[in-house]
Design brief:
The complex is a heterodimer of chains A (408) and B (227). Chain A is α+β, with helices and mostly antiparallel strands and 408 residues long. Chain A folds into two domains: 183 residues, no CATH class; 176 residues, no CATH class. Chain A contains 13 helices and ten strands. In chain A, helix 2 runs antiparallel to helix 9, helix 2 packs antiparallel against helix 12 and helix 9 crosses helix 11. Chain B has one domain: 3-Layer(aba) Sandwich (Rossmann fold). Chain B is built from eight helices and ten strands. The chains are: A alpha+beta (408), B alpha/beta (227). Chain A: This is Multidrug ABC transporter substrate-binding protein.
Chain lengths: 408, 227
């Protein structure tokens, strides 16, 4: 049998029963499109999560103070991060002696009431040095960032996040050169950062950056830092840098047992991998639910093909009398079921893609249709056609030509 | 050329063996027009199935063009049917939603040595040989009359020029007048084109169109005579 003949025969028999073919295809369309749409929601969520995590910086380790340890009989512990165990000296020591480090950026953070002419807001104040914007991938929309000169001069300058700028000066107002007051000290606004997205607590758009030395002197009055951001030179150095920082700080703090360390190190890779494994599980779950409808569609195909084989028993007998052998008959019926699923698959991909777009458009949920999910859908639909078409095709091929020709 | 040599056929119906053909022998040369006649239950249908390579004899030999085909497997038998035998059935067995030309070119799907470009020409030649008007060729087959349908079926049977046309009660579903036209078509194909034709029937009036009659009764040949 030539493949052109096979295609022509398939087209002929599917088009001579249009409504039945269309309904069977519909089953597959629903299955495939829901697989694509569901997986796009799952993958969109995981892309969202990993984008947000990597927007915090790349190859980043964050060293945070641990819970407060008190020597002596008092064993009341405060919450993690409350201790003042990390200092600017620790930060400098890390920079000086741990290898494969790109940059170190300590921060001193504090939440304060901020006022400008007539407006006020309560926001986070970050004392940073010139490395911080590099390490955390912060871009400036206007003006300049915190410079080394400002840090050494303990200059009273501030860089605002866009949300804070909006709160204090009005939406998209030009704030450069304006004055703000933090804790009765006056600061000059020198820059505004670009919006990063993200809302709510910990938003990187709603805060104020000032030189770290200024923060230490006027806001906290101490040399202890809130955290130290360490950027490794490359992703493969992360583990080594983490171990180096750990060893150095244990030694500096005179702690022998790493379990009782008065600091903790957050690895961005760990965060990313645990977040993406959660998203991966969600994608799998959504895909599995959609997969059920695909199986139902496949059973629809099998049902139609079995009906077709029964209806066309005499035709099968005739074809055998004309010289069709078993493999020709299998090929013919398999081609019909695979074509049904293939057409259903193509329409389903288009529909699923549009559905993913619609979900994104109407619910602002991030959706991502990836080539791998399209490829998955196409191969599943072809597989469904083969698996559910094979049994009816085999049944047709097994028919005895004499019996089939007598069939009424 | 067909040589049937002491062919028997026994069916095993739930443990009870039933012998339908009890040692049949005959020879049919190329270009003959033979009627195999017998009442129902005589074994003529079984004989037709064996002649048509749809079935294998239990014992005995069947030579078609000097090739022993009594021991071939299913696939080899399918190839024999495709190349050497054209069937004409009592109930036509046309694809009802397909055009006349599509029905007639159907055998080429399984005997695909003929290039696709030549198929329509050959189908046209076959339809001319059975005398079907050209304006019907693109009609759907279920729009034709019974006589026209059977002529389309005959055209389908001879389109790839098989050695033998095997017709099983070809007039059984037709009235006597159209039946006669169909039988004359067979006669003409035999006379003008030299096709070997084997007609299986229970009706002596049909058999008289053939040049030779083989009569079968209870699985044995009781008469073999030339007209």
């Amino acid at each position: 049998m030539l493949y052109q003949d096979l295609l022509a025969e398939t087209f002929f028999s599917l088009s001579s029963n249009k409504s039945r073919s269309a309904l069977t295809i519909l089953g597959i369309v629903i299955g495939i499109s829901s697989v694509i749409a569901m997986i796009s929601v799952g993958q969109g969520a995981s892309k969202d999560i990993s984008d947000r995590i990597s927007s915090l910086g790349t190859n980043l380790l964050v060293v945070m103070p641990g819970s407060q340890r008190q020597t002596g009989g008092n064993i009341v512990r405060s919450g993690s991060g409350s201790a003042t165990s990390l200092t600017l000296e620790d930060s400098n020591a890390i920079k000086a002696s741990v290898p494969s480090i790109m940059a170190v950026a300590p921060t001193i953070s504090s939440r304060k009431q901020v006022t400008s002419k007539g407006q006020n807001t309560n926001t986070s104040i970050y004392g940073i040095d010139d490395q911080y914007f590099i390490v955390k991938s912060v871009d400036l929309a206007q003006g300049i960032g915190i410079t080394t000169a400002q840090v050494s001069a303990r200059a009273k300058v501030a860089v605002l996040g866009p949300t804070t700028r909006d709160d204090l000066f009005g939406v998209d107002a030009d704030a450069i050169g304006s004055k703000i007051r933090i804790w009765s000290q006056e600061y000059t606004v020198v820059g505004v950062t670009a919006a990063k997205g993200g809302t709510g607590f910990g938003s990187s758009d709603d805060l104020i950056y000032i030189p770290i030395s200024t923060a230490a002197q006027y806001l906290t009055g101490s040399q202890s830092v809130s955290n130290i951001n360490v950027e490794a030179a490359s992703a493969k150095d992360m583990a080594m840098v983490q171990a180096g920082v750990q060893a150095l700080l244990l030694e500096r703090h005179h702690i022998a047992d790493s379990l009782s360390a008065d600091f903790s190190i957050l690895n961005q890779e760990d965060l990313l991998s645990s977040a993406s494994s959660v998203a991966g599980t969600m994608t799998l779950l959504l895909g599995a639910i959609a997969g059920i409808s695909l199986i139902v569609g496949g059973i629809g195909i099998m049902n139609m093909m079995l009906t077709t084989v029964t209806e066309r028993t005499r035709e099968i007998g005739l074809r055998k009398s004309l010289g069709a052998n078993a493999s020709d008959i299998v090929a013919q019926f398999l081609a019909e079921s695979v074509s049904l699923t293939f057409i259903g698959g193509v329409i389903g991909i288009a529909l699923g893609w549009s559905a993913a777009y619609a979900i994104h458009y109407f619910s602002s949920l991030t959706t991502a249709v990836t080539w791998s999910s399209v490829l998955l859908a196409v191969s599943i639909s072809a597989l469904v056609g083969i698996v559910f078409g094979y049994y009816p095709a085999k049944r047709a091929a097994k028919l005895d030509p004499i019996e089939a020709l007598r069939y009424q | 050329m067909i040589v049937i040599d002491n062919v028997t056929k026994t069916y095993n119906l739930s443990g009870n063996p039933l012998t339908v053909l009890k040692g049949v022998s005959f020879k049919i040369d190329n270009g003959e027009f033979v009627a195999i006649i017998g009442p129902s239950g005589s074994g003529k249908s079984t004989l037709m199935h064996i002649l048509g390579a749809l079935d294998r004899p239990t014992s005995g030999r069947y030579f078609l063009d000097n090739q022993d085909i009594s021991t071939l497997n299913d696939e080899e038998l399918a190839a024999i049917r495709s190349q050497k035998i054209g069937f004409v059935f009592q109930s036509f067995n046309l694809l009802s939603r397909a055009s006349v030309l599509r029905n007639v070119t159907l055998p080429f799907i399984y005997d695909y040595k003929t290039p696709r470009a030549e198929r329509l020409a050959k189908a046209g030649a076959a339809l001319n040989a059975v005398g079907l008007d050209e304006d019907r060729w693109n009609h759907l087959s279920n729009q034709l009359s019974g006589g026209q349908m059977q002529r389309v079926a005959i055209a389908r049977a001879l389109v790839n020029n098989p050695g033998i046309l095997l017709a099983d009660e070809p007039t059984g579903n037709l009235d006597s007048k159209t039946g006669e036209i169909v039988l004359q078509t067979f006669g003409k194909l035999n006379e003008d084109h030299g096709h070997t034709i084997i007609l299986i029937t229970h009706d002596p009036n049909v058999a008289r169109f053939a040049k030779r009659t083989i009569e079968i009764k209870d699985g044995q040949i009781v008469l073999d005579k030339l007209k």
